[in-house]
Design goal:
Length: 737
Amino acid sequence: RAYSCATFQIPLWERMKYPSFHRPLLAALSCCMFGVTPAAFGQPEPVAQTTIAPLAYPETRRVDVVDDYHGTKVADPYRWLEDLDGEETAAWVKAQNDVAKPFLERIPARESLKARLTELWNYERYGTPFEEGGRYFFFRNDGLQNQSVLYVADALDSEPRVLIDPNTFSEDGTISLSSVEVSRDGRLVAYSVSDGGTDWRIWRVRNVDTGQDLSDELRGIKFSGVSWAQNGSGFYYSRYPQRADGTYDDSKQVKVYFHRLGTPQSDDELIFEITDHPTRNPGAFLTEDGRYLIIGVFDGYDSNAYYYKDLRRENAPVVRLLDAWDALYTFIGNDGSTFYFSTTKDAPLGRVIAIDTNRPEPEHWRTLIPEAAETLEGVSYVGGKFHAQYLKDAQSLVRVYTPAGEHVRDVALPGIGSVGGFGGDSDDTETFFSFTSFTNPGAIYRYDVNTGEVTLWKQAESAGVDPEDYDVKQVFYTSKDGTRVPMFIVHRKGLSLNGENPTLLYGYGGFNISLTPGYSASRMAWLERGGVLAIPNLRGGGEYGEAWHEAGTKLKKQNVFDDFIAAAEWLIANGYTAPHKLAIQGGSNGGLLVGAVMTQRPDLFGAALPAVGVLDMLRYHTPSANARQWSSDYGLSENPEEFKALYAYSPYHNVEKGTCYPPTLVTTADHDDRVVPWHSFKFAAALQHAQDCANPILIRVETRAGHGAGTPTWMRIEQAADQWAFLIHALGMESND
């Protein structure tokens, strides 16, 4: 089983673009699970300008670069900022930081915010335990540790010991433990390390008994876990091809290899590669019984494929079991030659099917768990039962079924919120799950598979936070085309709907990712100061199944932005806030969201926080093969119709000179190799050039950091202090300080 720590050290938006071929729901093992037409209500007020004089921005050279897209000439005056290793780009980044950092540090509220954020982060939190070889493994953070620590214990109630402490990897905490996978006998753990936030991983192997590393070290790996051989002699993994200079080329396809312990990586055996399609990437893992090598094939976010190889047959071929690319499939487990999958095939909300590999044709598939009224998020096969996680209006519920598809029970959850976990083997008698909500920092529960009994294992307590002080509600509003969209709203009790409350509208809307209730120490600092938090479940996400996702993709991507704008208008019309008190925030695909709506409706918002955003939609796919695979959501500028849609909303290309844009803090990191930082560089340069009022346009570029995974605690606190201080200043909240 593969367990990722770094995936969950960050907000939901930062999990995007992680192709996964591991058993379902195991990614939910969190190492720190504890830790939102003017004509409808009148013309909004103009955005309030800040009280300071216009900033003197660094001079940004404009170049005469024009591309021809299907007969449309498109200027790209900041193309030179795409040279991330260039001296001129480095000088520009330094000059921008030299403007942004002093501006943020001068905001009076920043120091008190930082102090409170430090208090809020300082609470003990655990990840969901998992058992392997009779031992229990789990992550723990004492509160302010930069990175969560992996522990091992001989029993659930015995004294644990440190197995891997990533805080020893570097003095500043910027080298992180990304993911771990324990051999089936519990003797060895393969673990990956990220240096400075990069998506490139270095894999090593540690002896669980001695705590010492073996000689093995693997490189050239991104977005791939490892899968141990049944006897622990080595593991399967995927890696990119190596160039002549020793670096690895992520513009090419990965191949599946087997690494035998104690041998150099150069001797690894090539197991499988795809030669008949240029963009499909394979990842492999073993079934629980060790008989089959399952090969998941990734090429975008709307469909995939599965192949397998019977390892008990000598020279057995790779069988293309699911290769129609007609839906999404997720391997759950197997009972001999019968494979279990969840799928959106003929079921946009998801169902569970059984495929007998001796009769694999679709007419022989058996539906075990039919499509329900709720969205099927994931399924695990533990203790001889299916544990199916559903979303009902973006809130979790879990149902248990027999292998024949008979409903056994619903798991008793402690409230309305989000759950994760339920990992394990088919013969396990216990499993674990996490629960969190907007005001609950989280708990870990043990679940008895046979009896259904739920018992508390660990409960987190955040400093000075009383859930009873806050109201959490879910409302539904109507988007531009009449679509009904849900939205969570969180605020202190006793809020007056006077139209003047500082409000943060956060969104994502893409890649089938669902925004469900979850605790954030950072957001508590906002709520404590009287801020309102609003999170709409936009189309493009997965809250209502594949149809909801598809309605926010490619030629329909504008639906996502319309949903977000409609959420803002609803909050204003219902007395929560006003345009000059309304801030918007999002990261990665959510950074695109913020960039698009602030260029489409600059009058509607009082501040904007686009983070690590995809902002040049005509060239987003040029850096790597990974970025090109986002085209299942975005489309490609090479396609005439998709170009037209992309060009219409691309934030970088829709910045208009002479416009007053809201105060904006663009944030990115120099080691972000998922959404490369030149997106943010070019967007910020365009905004600064176009800005027609005193509202500040700042860009803060973090060093020794990437897309978000593995960011050390001290850096996360600094980043949050910057963002909240900026909002307090921009929205005129200083009197609340």
